[in-house]
Structures are given as C-alpha cells and as structure tokens.
Design brief:
Length: 579
C-alpha cells in the first residue's frame, strides 16, 4: 500500500509476527480528538521499543534486531521522530535520558536540556515598559531559542553505550527524508492548528508545511526533506561537530536573527555547550525506588513528592474517588514546592530536604481525606534559604515526545525529548525546527521583591517538567515510563505509576484510563473517560473540577516474570513493538 495507513498496517503486521498479544488496531486520533481507544499490551522476551510514531518504532526495532543497544535504538528513533513528528522533538531541541547499564548494573541520567545564551540576563523577557511580554509574543521568533542539546546527548549515549556504527543509525532517516513520507493524521491536524499561531510566518517553515496557496499540507501528502537529509549526511560522517562548531552551527546562529523577536544566540554559545551526566533522583515508594531526572527538571522531585506523601495512605486495590482525592491533594502540595524552589541547580541552591521522609510526612499531614484544600502553600523543607525566593507560576506547554527502550543486553533507556511548544519557535534551518525553550523560564525575574528561582540567567537551563522514569525493585528495573504534556507530564507519569504499581494494572490498561491532573489549583478530569465520571463526587469533597481534553503521550515497558510488557498511549499514534 502507498497510503499512510498502508505504512501503518505493514508495521502493525510486523508486530503481530513479533509479539503476542498485540494491541487492537484502531483509527489513530488527531490532536483535537478526545476519544481514548482501547488497546492491549504487547508482550516480548528479548527487546522492545515504545515511541510516538510507528515509522520510528519500526526503525528502533530493526536496530535492536541487528544487535544494537538501547543507545543505538534511541538515536535511530529520535532522528526518525524528528522527520515524521517534527512538531514535538528533534535535534533543534533538548532531552533528558535515564540509562540503565545492564552489564554494570547502574543507572545514570543525561542532561541534554537547552541552555540560555551567555549574554542573556534577568530582563530577557521584559518589554520596554519593564513588564513581561506576552507568552506567544515571546515564543515566535529566534529570541525563544536556547542552545539545542539533543544531538550532543545522542552522541554521548553512542560514545558510552553504542554497539553499531553511528552512520548506520542515521541512514534510515536520511533515506526516508529523501524518498518522502506521508503526513500522518496527527501531524496534519497539528499543522492546521498551528497556522493561526504563525507557523507560516517564516519562509523556510511555510514552504515546508504549507502549499503554494497558503493552505496547510494535508494528511497523506508526500513530504520530502532533502535539507534534513543533507544535514544528517554531514552529521553521519563527522558526528555532532558540524552542529556545534561547523556549518550547521553557523546556519543556526543566522536563523535565530529573525526580523521580529530576534535571538542573540552566538557561535560561542553553541561551541561551549556540554551534556551533563548527573546522578538520578530516586524516591523510595513502598517496595520500589522511583528514579528520574533531577534539576533542571522538576520531574523526579515532584513525582517523588507526590508518591512520598502517599506512602502513608492505603490507596486500595483499584481506582476510586477516595484514592484520587488523596492523589490530588498530594499533587497540590508538590506543585507548590515546585513553583517556589525548583530550577537549574547549577545556578540555584536546591533544598536538600524536598524528598526528606519527615518533611513529606508533614506535608501529607495537610491532606484531609474528607475535604479538599483550595490550593497549597509551599512548605519549608530542611533548608536555610527558603524565604529568599518568590514562587514561579510559569507552566510549560506540550510539544514533546517520550521513548522507552529495552535491548537484548539488558540496557534500557527512558528518554523524554522536546522542542517545547508544538513546532517550537517556528524557526527552521537545515530541515529541522528550532526550540522555544527559553519561554520555560519565568518571564518575570522577581515577585514581591524576591528573585524567582527559574528566572533567566546567562548559560542557565530552564526548568522542565519532563519526567523520564525508571522504577527499580531489589536494585533492578521493573518499569520504564514517561510522557509529553508540558507541566501536566508529572501528573501523567505519577498517576500511571500508581495504577501499575499500587493497583497492579497491566500497562496498557493503565494508559487507556482517563487522566486526573492537578497543578495546585482546579482539578482537570479527562473528558469522555472514566475519570470524568468522578466529577460530581470530587466536587462534593470541595474540588473545583474542569472536564477537558488531556492529550498525553505515555510510553511504558513493564518487566515482569521474564517478559517485556509494552504499552503506547492510545491518544496518539505511537506503538510498542518487540521480539
């Protein structure tokens, strides 16, 4: 078949041969659609990939079948996602990765988060009147672009854990970029939806995503990207160097000098960028260790705080209004601490006590099982400088993707990757979009005469909610999970960890269920799902409730009884494949 759905049917046919049982086929949903289809988990024994587009997952599966490592597979998957899901991630953005080294039996995390230009300062997002400019005014154009870290992260993963030649991992994306791929339903809906947000403002971006008459390219349109193929050929032969110190770097610096909202990124900013290998942040939860990415991500700390507060509660053996009420209250407390304290720890001293057991017990003591609090105030963890800071209310927008991979050697990776909001800054060069990650900083540098921890500073990395997670039990991985979704990522991940670990749900069963989200305010329940049915009961407890579309993109792999059990979010186009 030549159609997009022909490609998908071929890929899903491969899954039927490789794993059993396999998810039921259903019509993929564009971003605006809220219906959550029912799927079944994929079970495999040797290796597995779960990611946001079947074309990318197929490439990753092929790399693993050829003897590649999880690091090799994630490189191939990420580059293919850059091509076929460009609105969400790519080498123009940044990523966080947790990597389990099967031979060494150790877990580490890699910080490939974007970085502010060295010349940026606290007034970066202030207008002529001294007030923060509007969010969309900040997004569109080169000024929102931070130094991209994804490609250097991929290169570092390959240097440490790769088994196949670097060039072989780029070859499938190069070939498809030249041959062309058919625009998926979700990508088509994203293009059309972003037109009103200036996706067609800059010539290179408009020429790629829109027809000559200005209409958005439709589902099924054959899309070729020879510029991206050319850039990847250079990267295949020379590694990441051309991107950070060579021809591509020069093109990035030129591209951010947009006519409006021009950026200040320099060649030196690119040349001095480094991926940082950090110790993961782990939280004991019942019989598990839930490990994730520390600052500049708030993901692991906030997920850990939610779970830590709930450790003293019996959540029952299945989803209930009473259990979700406790979860919501814990989330309010955790998001309050997130807003006040969490930022790039290379620039801001972080409280050592945010995951302190005694502190979390005190926070849990604020939870009334019979009544909701309107909102939570930040606590006072063991730390002497807490009173110095003002809270930040900046919330990230969804424009992200998550990849979970287990290879045949026992290596595993959980990686969340982003260009921030959908289509990033709208600035395109060499066939890839550049991020708008600098809008993840607080646009106001202070409040109430106190500095905001997540304010802009030269060379600083903006706070993130990305929460790539690996859960350990008895020192060995038992679950890989993560999601896109902006500041709601933390809720998507924490809520599904509870479903899988506490309530024993099959991963796909968990992902099929409706979301419950609270970011220290009103509670969001996912429309047209089981979650929405709790609205009246939660309101009776005092919760303000909104029923709305919640478009996660979770990808999970559970390791149980010698099997790999994979799940892909039914709200998007992803799949899990294994052997």
């Amino acid at each position: 078949m030549n159609s997009y759905w022909g490609q998908m049917m071929r890929i899903l046919g491969l899954a039927l041969l490789a794993a059993a049982p396999v998810m039921a086929q259903e019509a993929q949903q564009p971003e605006e659609t809220v219906a959550v289809a029912v799927r079944e988990s994929v079970v495999a024994e040797r290796f597995m990939v779960a990611a946001a587009n079947p074309l990318a997952v197929e490439v990753g599966q092929d790399i693993l079948a050829r003897g590649g490592s999880a690091a090799d597979a994630v490189i191939a998957v990420q580059l293919m996602l850059n091509l076929v899901e460009p609105q969400s991630s790519g080498i123009g953005g940044g990523a966080f990765a947790l990597y389990w080294d099967g031979s060494a039996g150790g877990l580490t995390s890699f910080d490939g988060r974007e970085r502010a230009p060295m010349a940026a300062d606290e007034g970066y997002w202030l207008g002529a009147d001294g007030e923060p400019i509007g969010w969309w005014d900040a997004v569109i154009g080169g000024r929102s672009v931070g130094v991209p870290g994804t490609l250097k992260l991929l290169a570092e993963l390959h240097a440490q854990h790769g088994r196949l030649p670097w060039a072989d991992l780029l070859a499938p994306t190069i070939a498809l970029a030249e041959e062309g791929f058919e625009i998926s339903p979700r990508m088509a809906a994203s293009i059309a939806g972003a037109q009103e947000r200036s996706l067609d403002l800059f010539p290179a971006t408009a020429a790629y995503f829109f027809n000559a008459d200005g209409s958005p390219k439709a589902e099924g349109t054959l899309l070729k990207n020879p510029e991206f193929a050319q850039a990847l050929r250079l990267i295949a032969s020379e590694g990441a160097a051309p991107f950070y110190t060579g021809a591509i770097a020069g093109d990035i610096v030129a591209a951010v000098r947009t006519e409006s909202n021009a950026g200040i990124l320099t060649a030196e900013d690119l040349a001095t960028y480094e991926v940082i290998e950090r110790a993961p942040v782990c939280m004991e939860y019942r019989t598990y260790e839930v490990c994730g990415m520390g600052p500049p991500s708030s993901g692991a700390l906030t997920v850990g705080q939610i779970l830590g507060q709930l450790s003293g509660f019996d959540l029952g053996d299945g989803a209930s209004t009473e259990a979700w009420h406790l979860y919501i209250e814990a989330a309010k407390n955790a998001y309050a601490d997130r807003g006040l304290y969490m930022a790039d720890s290379d620039f801001v001293d972080m409280p050592e006590g945010l995951l302190d057991a005694d502190y979390l017990e005190l926070r849990a003591g604020l939870i009334d099982p019979a009544a909701a609090m309107e909102s939570a105030e930040a606590g006072e963890p063991p730390w002497e400088e807490g009173a110095l800071w003002a809270p930040d209310t900046q919330l990230e927008r969804p424009g992200t993707s998550h990849i979970s991979i287990v290879d045949s050697y026992g290596d595993m990776i959980s990686m969340t990757t982003t260009i921030e909001t959908g289509f990033g800054s709208r600035v395109m060069t060499n066939g890839f979009l550049l991020n708008n990650e600098l809008t993840d900083f607080s646009r106001a540098p202070e409040a109430d005469s106190k500095p905001i921890a997540n304010r802009v500073e030269g060379g600083k990395r903006p706070r993130s909610s990305m929460a790539p997670t690996i859960v350990l039990q008895d020192g060995k991985p038992v679950l890989l999970i993560g999601s896109p979704g902006g500041s709601r990522i933390i809720n998507y991940v924490a809520g599904n960890i509870i479903r899988i670990l506490d309530w024993g749900m099959d991963p796909q069963e968990a992902l099929n269920m409706g979301h419950v989200v609270n970011r220290n305010g009103a509670t969001d329940l996912e429309e047209e799902t089981d979650a929405a049915e709790m609205a009246t009961a939660l309101e009776a407890l005092g919760h303000e409730v909104n029923v709305r579309n919640l478009n996660s993109g979770l990808h999970a792999i559970l390791l149980k009884d010698g099997k790999l059990i994979g799940a892909a979010d039914p709200r998007r186009e992803g799949v899990a494949l294994g052997e």
